[in-house]
Amino acid sequence: MAEITLILVIQKLGIAVAGETLKLAKPLLGRKDELVVALPANMKLIKDELEMINAFLKEIGIKACKGEVIETWIRQVRRLTFDMEDVVDQFMYVIGENKMTGSWAHLKKIFKKPRSLILLDDIATKADTVNKELIELSSRKHRWTQPIAGVNDIPTTSYDNEQLFYLPGHDHSINDDELIGIYEKKESLIEMLHSKDHSMRIIAVWGMGGIGKSTLVNNVYTSELSHFGCCAWVSISQLYKLDDVWRNMLTELGKDNREFDTQKMNGEELRAELKKILDKERYLIILDDVWRAADFLKIKEVLVDNGVGSRVIITTRIEDVASRAEDGSKIKVEPLNDHDAWLLFCRKAFPSIENYTCPPELCEYGKAIVGKCDGLPLALVAIASLLSLSTKSRKKWRIFHEQLISELHSNENLNRVEKILNLSYKHLPNYLKNCFLHCAMFPEDYLLHRKRLIRLWIAEGFIEQRGASNLEDIAEGYLIELVQRSMLQVVNRNSFDRIRCLRMHDLVRDLAISQCKSESFCTVYDDTHGVVAQLGLEPRRLSVLRCNNDIRSSIDPTRLRTFISFDASMALSSWSSFILSESKYIAVLDLSGLPIETIPNSVGELFNLRYLCLNDTNVKLLPKSMKKLHNLQTLSLERTNLLKVPKEFSNLTKLRHLLIWKLLDGTYTSFHNWESVEPFEDLWRLKELQSLSEIRATKVFVAELGKLSRLRSLCITYVRSSHCAQMCDSLSKLHHLSNLHIRAYNEDETLLLEDLTMPNPLEKLGLVGRLSEGTLKSPFFSTHGDRLLNMELLWCQLSENPAVHLFELSNLTELHLTRAYTGQQLNFHSEWFEHLKKVVLSDLPQVNQICIHEGALVNLEYLLIDSLKKLREIPTGIKFLSSIKEAYFTRMHPDFILQMGKLNHIPKVHWSAQGVSTLQTEDANLPASASNNNPQWRILGGGWVFI
User: Fold this and answer.
1) Pick from 176, 362, 491, 554: most CB atoms within 10 A?
2) What pLDDT, on a 0 to 100 scale, did the predictor assign at position 89?
């Protein structure tokens, strides 16, 4: 509903009418104009009214009240809320401008009537109009909703009615021989039921909605209930009542017992009777679809541990609920792989055909439909069962595929799929709904990177300050919660288990797009087939997947807050003519990959801009007008041609992330893989800065670096020996720094870092260049080294094996050594690097022997050895690496490649020989591309490397 829109505006209004803001506004408000004087009071009234509307909408949502009148009224609320957001953003801009340029009295000397006061007149008029319309809107609600039964006294959805929705077997039946892809999980679940542990044991089966949790558990429940003295299946749902859950449990347990009437029993009587029954028998109880851990703990009060091997299975979409089970008693159900998904689909679509074989003429669209289901059994079974009853024609299936999302919404045989998936969204906390819908703006199967999402969510205003916590930390917590609620799927984590990138399930994304359309949250624009799909009414955000035509005819640009383009071929005229002139409230502008060389001066008029991303463009210069972007938080120009920033950028005091660098060597094998930007004058005035990458060292900058006290991530390049003492002193003042990358001026320059000390331990450290003798023995490594998780040593040219000192970094999970060592032997002794998961050894020109002793690298999962051209034998002791999952050997000596047969214990092995003309590659094992959609792969001389 409209609550997520309202919450953002209420938060903004709260800031606008706060004492600190009004104090700044006092010079502008102290005039005789009645509306201007009344502006703070009007905004306070509007805020109060919106809070009441928000509470009403929550009540409607909880009690599932629907109807065209209510929906129309909500659309009007949303439209008016958008108007008020524009007003409050303009107000905050005027106040900010006045603070930057001086008092009204000073301005009056320059202008007859200051521009800020002209704007304030307009703002006050608009706020007064919104206030009057809100009063009318509230009156309209009473006029039109009172005659409708159930709005003033909204009935709560019946628990019993909702419970029917969850009962096992309610969905399309899956027989035992149709449990495709989850047979192993079934065996594991049965094994847990009959383990020798005689204490009462909690077992959790969890995963996203429609993934087959209840189907799996019901199949096991049916086959195993005879081994238990009494059994019960109880569906919980969001709207459960504790007494009703216990009442249903008691009814199930005592089906043949007529001694008591559960309907007449109160909570205490139900609890006592349940404990009495469960204390006597070995019981099996299924708690299906538990949403909150607190709910489970309340229900658990009656589950006595009688020491006879009783079992409780909970199914849930929420990881926090699943965590109530012990580590060895949790089963996560994942989407089916392509092979199993096709088998399940064919079993249901062609039940009467021998071997369930799909006719050749239907394969193309059958596989396209299966692909859209993205391994979700609920959707596969429902759709295939429906298709089994329809005409088996290519045209029919083509049309069905094209209208699949519409069918899920409107076809009564399929809308249960939509309802099951939408339940997860419906019951998200309000603070997560915006973040979730925002993910639908990205293309299908797009990799969503943690850092990008976090910065976007902050720029959008989705992240609410909590105490003294950093906004980025709060946003990461939101992201983790979406994963734990099975709304997003983790694709990749770094070596210390932090989320690196995610994806959205295809069907979940399609349904989220429908929700975005109904709430005017965003428009996903795609005219690939000449038809623009999924346009919403007055959208606030626009995501362009493909633009072959003039986009202006399809949207109202004056409402836009976000513009993100994923179409690298999009013409300049398709966006610049209206974004820069008409979308004056825009907060997020992401033009990554577009063929842009210059940025117009008019970008400086986008007063509300908070996020500007121009990655992978050809931009060389930025206009000085950008100094007016006082709200800018993120400025990203990675892999561009920009090397110098105007000195006026020191005015952008709200900048949190400044990311600028030019790619020089796409193979990432040179000392200067990228070129960094020169520091501009007074850069150290940017007190909010948290990420700075990549910046050149100068005498002045390294001296002032310590003033950037909130820095968390820093990459500093072109460091000379003469800079090091002052740089170390400045770094010692950065209390929040966790990620530090230092690159020397060139490969002959020595980094003098013996005196490096940090107030707090680093998580990631990268050193590129020669290191002075004793650096790895310095106080930094002995004092803080046990907290270091990721270490990179590149072009260090150490004569002593660095592992001799680095193994003392006891919590290290990732180690990169490139041109770091000039010796011939590299040894890893027993008990070294016990937590290391990833090792990269690249371009160590003299190494001809690697020895891994038993007990070393015991948790290693990923190994890359690249360009060790004198290494002809596979590492001695590599057989001891029992935990390894992937190994890459690229640009190696041909003799080394001949020994690949000795690595059969490693599940995935990728290799290539040195020299372009003699390149040998296992193509089948390599990733398809290294596009922006799959950026964790980089190419090294013909072989792909995961970084």
Assistant:
1) 362
2) 86
